[in-house]
Amino acid sequence: MFVAGIASAVIGIVLFHVALGRTLRANAGVRIPFGARPRETPPGSVQMRALAAGLIVLGAVFVSTEGWHWTVMVIAAGPVAAMIVLTLHNCRVSREARSADA
After folding, report:
1. How far apart are CA 76 and CA 95, in angstroms?
2. pLDDT (tens digit, 9 = 90+) per residue, 45-58?
3. pTM of the prediction?
């Protein structure tokens, strides 16, 4: 079950980040707010994120048989990486806006 849980979580995290990448490309020159909808949502990205969330939770349930620390790592891995990616995107967009104004 542990290996199936890790595989499910990895597939879920990859799907989540593919959907995030599509959203970043669709909003290349626009800041994406944390906790709110982006200006443009690519087709299929919401469904992909929903499937990814289900796989991540399934993976967390499967790896919980080996200890609680694995569950925390699986649940935190995707969102932490997404927050970093969104922060970098928003910093890049702000930097480009400042350089265009100068």
Report:
1. 28
2. 999 999 999 998 89
3. 0.84
